[in-house]
Amino acid sequence: MGEYSPYLPSECLQEIFKYIDENDTKTLYSILLVNRLWCSNIVSILWRNPFKNQKEEKISYKILLTLLSYNPFTTTHTLSSTSTIDNNDDDKEQPIIKSFKESTILTRFDYPYFIKKLDLTNMLKMIFYLTEDKKKEEIKFKNLKKYNNSSSIFEKIWKIITSNSNIETLIINTIDCHKFSKYLEPFFKIPETKKCFSTLKSLTLKLKPQDSLILSELINCINDKIKDIELEISYKSTITCFDSDLIINLISSQKNLEKFHYKDDSGNLFIYPIILKLRDHSHSIKSLTLEQSCSIDVDLFSSFENFYNLQELSFKNFNFEGNHDLFSNIKFPKLKSLSFDDIKSRNQQYMAYVSEPIMNFIQNHSTNLNHLSMNVLDVIMKDTFKTISQCCSNLTSFSCATNDQNDMKFIYLIFKNNPYLKSIDLCIIFPIRNSILETFAREIPESINNITIGYSILGKVQVNTFLKELKCDKLKSFKFNWQNPKNVDIDKMAREISKDKGWIFKGCELKPTQYQRKYIIEWE
Fold first, then answer.
1. pTM of the model
2. Which of 329, 260, 336, 269 is nearest to 296 (CA)?
């Protein structure tokens, strides 16, 4: 018999590794250290998204040190203009792009080539932390000596990435990084940036009104093959208004959008022209989310009649005006996900109820629906829940809000009539007693993986009661608003209940939200 190799071939390893979550850096780093073969096959996954969100209290910048050691290119391109970036450690103007005459590769792999997802905001945060520690002399790295400030480090990193990477996903968030525009705008104008962004497939932008110039410059250097766009305009500004024509230009610059998610908190934009422009992509759009706190005439939705490939549709924060009958006549043959969240009707006929045409709309799509969210406040929901329980039988996730305890029996019917249900999210606005929680827990199907209870604030006794009454076989997560008393060990309690239930406990995390704290308990 012939000898067999003790190692799996690279093709097999890559097929296995692609199932690992790219955010599970602990596992990825462990694989990196097994041997050279495993290392060479996992490094591309580890570096696909190097600037991802970090949970650490202080952001790690080690990955920047690796990039700063990488110098594979030789170019003499120079941009003569200068930067006016405000740095605490150096007030002098710095050249935006310098000439590079470097050809030595000091790293083991061609790391920038692996980068496909670029979160520029997180990258800047890492650079700020690196610069801060450099000033404090808390870091000893000889390659840092030639960089005077965060501006020069950003310039170097940007040059390395744009000259050696083909970015597929770009994320820009100026809401969480107020200095962002000062760094970024000049770099959109260099040829390397346009080449690097020529392979873009997905774009996520979270901008303040005063940062519209970023979008303007970005439109000039992206390709026309982007499939997914997520755009959020936040923070009201009495000084600056975001130019809605830029959003129109962004939509116009693309040929076949498949996903468009739009959220406006600025209060300055008109959504009408955006909806009308989306008609140019009616043949390709599969996912559409529109969120804006404003009044809108239902007649405008006639623009969606030809969206035959639409699979996900979400409306949030709208006041629907005009004749609702249009909803009864629209049908999307492929619709699988539908959300009506924080929707109000200003039609006098339907002030106290979810309108009959909207219910007809749900019924028209009930056969294919996998996800349904009905977080509609200040209306009577009993008949709505009853109709959903009768017409929907293929839901895998369901979300709703209720301010009436009597609604619960119809919500339980929805659970019962949807055997494939895996995820439930209930915003319970009425006072929630232990007896209600006990009944709620017992009515939850065994197949449920994820549970969220919103609005109501739970204490230790309520959480303990709820978890003990659950019959779920494969619970993955439980999210709830926490009362946050001192000296209460939720972690210990969850471990003990998990042991009795046979659940494999993963961990607890307390996250601050706008008005309270949210606890997340997770299981394997």
1. 0.85
2. 269
